[in-house]
Amino acid sequence: MFIDIHTHAILLHDPRQRRISRWTAPDELLQMWDDLGIARGVVLPLVHHEIGAILQTTENVLDIYNLYPDRIIPFCNLDPRWQYNNPNNDFTPILEHYKELGCKGFGEFVANLWWDDDRVLNLLSHLEKVGLPVLFHVASKERGQYGLIDDYRLTKLEFVLKTFPRLQFIAHSMGIWSNISGDANEENWMGYPTGPVTPGGRLIELLRTYDNLWGDISAGSGNNALVRDKEFGFRFLEEFQDRLLFGTDICGFGQEVPQVDTMNEALASGLLSQEGYDKIAYKNAVGLLGL
Ligand SMILES: [Zn+2]
Predict the structure, then answer these.
(1) 250 CA distance to ligand 1 centroid (A)?
(2) Low-confidence ranges of the chain (pLDDT < 50)
(3) Could you tell me the domains of the chain?
């Protein structure tokens, strides 16, 4: 059984939108989950203008949740620049409102702002207060990318992990997963580095140091980190079995999803225990999201 921590689907209320939306429809998402053996999962609203031509409200995800309450786990989302681009907006009432409506977390946070931007810090402080975990994507620069901006050593991420110790950070994207290995550098960290993992990965250091950091194994980035050096990757799953979450990052119908095979291969190798497998597959999500 799997719980998927990371997907995207939009309920198009207006068929004209189909011409500019590349995102999965809710029934397509369920069909893909059925084929993969995924019982249920999170749908992440796409609210930030950096992400695409079709934006999605939290209410749209709640509509999908109301159609399929047994399968959809809604997250809420907002942009720290909303409400007059203020660094001191009180986002707590909105977040509490979405929590009451059933939202279990926040994200995908992809605003192309620095982690230590005053508007981002303000939003993170409200997320910590309300108690919603944040799932995020990392960028290396402004423009041409989406996600919170950091350097390849993830210095800014470390700063927010330290600043908000009660906020649970769910890490995703190339910039995170290239750092499983000590050879991540300025040139390769936003890509999909291959070859043996070398000691000293920043992600590993941060996971060992900060217990509010979680890893979402979704997307090409998460899977690549686990299979580029399978012995290392499968041992990594075992070591961090309490802080990793199964996910796919399904965005469009028919997309390839390698994570189920990777998990099964790790189990078959004997390097990942059944207990660790079950935690990553669904038990950690149940605990973290309070399902
Ligand atoms: Zn995503």
Answers:
(1) 7
(2) none
(3) 2-289 (3.20.20.140)
